[in-house]
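ingest -> validate -> predict -> emit
validate: passed (alphabet ok, no gaps, 72 aa)
predict: started
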Amino acid sequence: METFQGGWRAQLRTYTKPPTHEIVLAAHQLPLPHPDPADRFLAATAQVLGLTLVTGDERLLGLGEIRTLANR
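emit:
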């Protein structure tokens, strides 16, 4: 299974990053209309690392300074 996962991750150029203190603090400070911690960490990670958050969740689109892209 690891070989399979490593293969598609390499092709998609994805990586994992553990939450840093900066990401945790940003997640806590985000003005999201709902308290879902997973959404907070996704949005905060994109914000801190300067990434675009691709999501189908309408609640996460248009988060101000966080770049988002609708996945519909």
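The chain has one domain: 17-70.
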